[in-house]
Structure formats: C-alpha cells, structure tokens
Write a structure and sequence with these properties.
With about 190 residues, this protein is mainly α. Helices cover about 75% and strands about 0% of the residues. It is globular and about 60 Å long.
C-alpha cells in the first residue's frame, strides 16, 4: 500500500527505484505480518494506562519541583510504559525496575570515573549494563538508558540515589497503589 503511493509520487523508472519499491513492498508485508505479535489492549486498559502513566510521572515531577530533590530522569518515561502498559511483563516487576535502573547507574558511574565520557564509553556502559542485568535476572530496558544518561551527564554517586533509586522507589510505590486500587488489576506478579 505504501509502495503504491510512493510509486505514484516519485515515478521510479530507474533500476534502483524498482529495487527500492520491491524492498518497501517486502518490508510492508513483514511489518503487516508482525502486527499479530503486538499486544492488544481493551479501551479500559488504554484509559487506565493513560491515567496511570500521567499520574505516575506527574507525582515524580511534582515532588522534584516542590522539594528541589531530583527524582525524575528520562529513563523513567520508559519505565512508565512498562509498569502501566505491560504490568504483567517480567521486565516490569519490582526486582527488575529497581535492580535494572540501579545497575545502569552503578555501571555508568564506575565507567565514567574510569574512562570519561567518550562515545565508546557510552556504548560500553549500555552493553555492560545489559550484560549485568541479564546475569542478575534484573533486565529492565530503561536500565540501559540510565547507563547512557549517566555517562552523558558525568554522573557521580549521588546519581545512584537521586534520581535513580529514589525515583524508582516512588514510581514503584505509586504503581503498586494505582494497580491494586483499580478493580481487576494487580501488581506485581512477583516481588523478587
């Protein structure tokens, strides 16, 4: 479908254009086919995810602004996706949320102190964080983002405690309260 519109707009008459159109058609078919594996959400789930993620991030932002105690970091947006949209996922459980984010912070602090913040150190921090999360069974994708942010911001040990640990705990407590006060929802599936 996309390739038809592309063909009419750009009139690919060259050999390269025909190959590009062929690739787009194949990609379109594969993308269409992969929709089967995407989670399906009811209207109620969509609304609860929207409200929960809004309130969870709002609580973090409100506390950060009004206490001047940094509790919010970019990776918490990704954590909110997991704990509110996919709360039953193994990577959204408390052990993973706290462990993954804290491991990402520790890795970024240690590697940043040892090697600085060159681009290769950013890559090393993310891959090391992923490796350690896999070893410790605390895989949490935002933990990789925490490692990246930590290197880029030249984080010191305070970064581990605020925003990472404190923010993760606030978000976890809010997530627990939100899901368990909402009829038909329960969080977590397991603590450890």
């Amino acid at each position: 479908m996309f390739s038809r519109h592309l063909k009419y707009k750009f009139n690919f008459s060259s050999n390269a254009g025909k190959k590009l159109t062929s690739v787009i058609k194949r990609l379109g078919w594969k993308l269409h086919r992969s929709r089967v594996y995407q989670p399906k959400f009811s209207d109620q789930q969509l609304l609860l995810t929207y409200i929960g993620s809004f309130l969870g991030i709002a609580v973090l932002a409100y506390i950060s602004v009004n206490t001047h105690y940094p509790l919010i970091a970019a990776p918490f947006g990704a954590t909110a996706v997991l704990v509110f949209a996919l709360p039953d996922s193994p990577i959204a459980q408390p052990r993973n949320l706290i462990g993954g984010n804290c491991l990402g912070a520790i890795v970024s602090i240690v590697l940043g102190h040892l090697f600085g913040s060159d681009p290769w150190v950013i890559a090393l921090a993310v891959s090391t964080a992923i490796f350690l999360m896999q070893l410790t069974k605390t895989l949490h994708p935002p933990g990789g983002a925490v490692a990246l942010v930590g290197i880029m911001s030249h984080a010191d040990w305070n970064f581990l405690f605020a925003p990472v640990l404190a923010g993760s705990l606030v978000l976890l407590i809010f997530t627990f309260a939100f899901h368990n006060l909402t009829p038909g929802r329960h969080y977590p599936k397991h603590w450890l």
